[in-house]
Amino acid sequence: MPTIIIEKNERPGDSWRKRYKSLCLHDPVWYDHLPYLPFPGHWPVFSPKDKIGDWLEMYTKVMELNYWSSTTCKQAAYDEASETWTVTVERAGETVVLRPKQLVLATGMSGVPNVPEYPGAETFEGVQHHSSRHTSGEDYRGKKCIVVGSNNSAHDICADLWENGAEVTMLQRSSTHVAKSDTLMELALGDLYSERAVANGVTTDMADLIFASLPYKILPALQVPVYEEMARRDAEFYDRLEKVGFMLDFGDDDSGLFLKYLRRGSGYYIDVGASELIADGKIGLRSGVTIEEIKPHAVVLSDGSELPVDLIVYATGYGSMNGWAAQLISQEVADRVGKCWGLGSGTTKDPGPWEGELRNMWKPTHQPGLWFHGGNLHQSRHYSQFLSLQIKARLEGLSTPVYGMGPVHHLS
């Protein structure tokens, strides 16, 4: 299929390279292979961001992808009469108009960064930024830092600041699920994505099919025993965290990390060391409070206390992917499509918050010709096949009825 990839960064992989220096995959290498070209056998179990960035750049060249770097998508509009998109991009200082039949927003699983608005933020004389703009703790040695949030990025950034000699405090507003990396790998992924699985003859394709064969509706009940065993094995670890005031949970129905990921895309941390720093008091913790006001050199918390601060990092997550659709296309189209991600359905009447499929992912949406592709490397590898086949069928003129397409459910 004729395809053009539009990327605003200068090089393939820059979306990884430009993140904070300590960023490293928390999923194991067997879970993260790319389609057609698996990582080599000597690859580290947990890959650092620059290694992934370089691999993606190599992948783009070896797979001979039509890749337009340094290109920004400015606007897209759909013409129903011709069933064609008009996509306006800026490339090397020139405006180029593309007219594809299909438009895929392959922007990950996250939308526009969520940046909270606090009274007095404009008066702050230190540095404040969202976690997506954080690069390194090297500039904050000896500085007082607050990280708002308690999920993966918040823990990573807290550890990075501590390792660089900053005095850092995590501001935990709500409870978080924490899973120790080694325990998670053994109990949750070991049968399919591990050195043990490879030794038992489980290939990546086989593991993907087995994993995808489990309907999401029955997945919570299957996951509960896994996390019950995790809680038993790591009871001392969890006890130490709770003693310093960290608010823990195992999900709404004790089904753990992966269901949190599917339902919310957040609310968890795979512990690769930051939790130990919190339990030992090396990373400060204020839990169950929020920022009420920001002063030029301090923050006032909801319990009335005041903390001096030089850096505020908002590790406060992202909105739905349809936020990009609102920016690039229109709010009307974003509302017509509805929420992306989360268990339910973007194409049928929502059966409930914890049932169905991932909303709008890898399948037709209420906007003809518009597709959403994202998720972790495992999901991107596996489901890209099916998204591609659906587009290929349309290109070849095959009948592509969408069964059960229900009415539009607006976000309101």
UniProtKB/TrEMBL annotation:
<keyword id="KW-0560">Oxidoreductase</keyword>
<dbReference type="InterPro" id="IPR036188">
    <property type="entry name" value="FAD/NAD-bd_sf"/>
</dbReference>
<dbReference type="Pfam" id="PF13738">
    <property type="entry name" value="Pyr_redox_3"/>
</dbReference>
<dbReference type="GO" id="GO:0050660">
    <property type="term" value="F:flavin adenine dinucleotide binding"/>
</dbReference>
<dbReference type="InterPro" id="IPR050982">
    <property type="entry name" value="Auxin_biosynth/cation_transpt"/>
</dbReference>
<dbReference type="GO" id="GO:0004497">
    <property type="term" value="F:monooxygenase activity"/>
</dbReference>
<protein>
    <submittedName>
        <fullName>FAD-dependent oxidoreductase</fullName>
    </submittedName>
</protein>
